[in-house]
Design a protein that fits this description.
The structure is a homotetramer. Chain A is 25% helix and 32% strand. Chain A is globular and about 45 Å long. Chains A and B meet through helix 1 and strand 2 of A and helix 1 and strand 2 of B. Strand 2 of chain C pairs antiparallel with strand 2 of chain D.
Chain lengths: 142, 142, 142, 142
């Protein structure tokens, strides 16, 4: 199963006056996880765009289980939830650095579009790459 | 029905290199809508905190229908979705300035906690205020 | 003298775990002030771009005098500092809502560029508009 | 000379509709550099706070030389500019990943305060640590 793990250090910019990480910042870190998962699949999202595709978000969800604090080291875990004809879902879990406590769980759904922002079938260079990696057990970066 | 409408002007800080508003910023604007709905109920969220309560997010969801652009004027519409024993849900729609096209729909769920972050029953000064406003048809600010 | 005054309400997203507004957010509000100053001059920055120009920042400075808190109403005051051949400077003061206490003072310097990002002379439709408004005493929006 | 080098990967959240990194995000990365410089000195800023001190910004400046793009890898270089009786200055340069082209140069000045936000002399556990590291040539992390 394709799974990426990326570390994030919380800075003051990420926190709010309640003394914890402001809720939209976890969703911003979902983007980091997603980008690093692509890189682990030997692609980059920038390269997907160069091929003439875009992947705008159609949906995002986050479930907040436990707050993160300033200077905490977090682990963002990203997996592909599903690949449909014209959309793709990523699942995320944000953990403490030891992967003992899940702090936030969530997902995002993305449409595939061409340069005129029309919805298109996911190009085979992506679906093939995912199938191939799933068969071989995927790669596990860090 | 309690409903707040607040206007937001998109600035460059809110946009991304796709030329549209970055997806977490709509969720940040949900906070503005929620804060203004409280103000319209003759409370402020700051005052709720002074009474010894907090309302941390437990859940947030956004469905992206159509992107907003730089300098666009948007309308954030906020309603109370439900009030349960220890949690409250807000529903949001972000519209173009003429309220003709919904751009983003979403909701957030919040727990009520005391100063030690223990979940508590929603204080009656809030539930009474909401009931009273719903009976009188609520107020409509802008 | 051209001067714009725009109000900003501090939300949780703007604050940090020190309990005050995170320092880069004041600089983001400088952008709001600058945009509203253009609007007060019967232009928009979006329209300047449609004419084929850009105004990338070359410099920004902020001096922090006193911190702003969650839910505080602030006044962003923006003036043109100077207009040179190919650059323009804006000066900003962020006040409490009663304009009694200056919280942040700063400035930004912007180059004028064409669509290939080459530095160009400021177009006369802008310099003429500024001169004209300065002679007539400018307009004072809010 | 104490100098920290930390790498940052630009994500969409950092960019704006001009297709480049939004200017306040470089200043947010100054915070990352500063935090990592402390860590390299075998302290953390969080620990300094636990000792009863704060280091609020009094001044920040950035000079923008060349824009960074989506997915670019950047190098944030942070040095101590000066240490005065009650204030400290950090100097920053943000480079491309190969340290060939400086993109942004800047600095921040911080006051030392106690828990009541009164300005105090910098504690000797910090000044001694800096002096000691400067004599031994400092450490070079990455």
């Amino acid at each position: 199963m394709l799974c990426n793990q990326t570390k994030i250090r919380v800075i003051y910019a990420d926190t709010d006056a309640m003394g914890i990480v402001y809720h939209t910042n976890y969703i911003k870190w979902f983007e980091i996880g997603r980008g690093e998962l692509f890189r682990q699949m030997d692609m980059t999202y920038a390269w997907v765009e160069e091929q003439g595709y875009g992947m705008p978000l159609t949906e995002v969800y986050a479930h907040y289980l436990s707050p993160a604090q300033y200077d905490q080291l977090l682990l963002v875990e990203t997996e592909i939830g599903y690949v449909k004809r014209a959309s793709i879902r990523f699942n995320y879990t944000i953990w403490d650095e030891f992967r003992e406590k899940a702090l936030v769980e969530g997902h995002s759904v993305h449409a595939f579009v061409d340069q005129s922002r029309r919805i298109v079938r996911i190009p085979s260079f992506i679906t093939d790459r995912i199938k191939q990696l799933e068969q071989t057990g995927g790669s596990h970066g860090g």
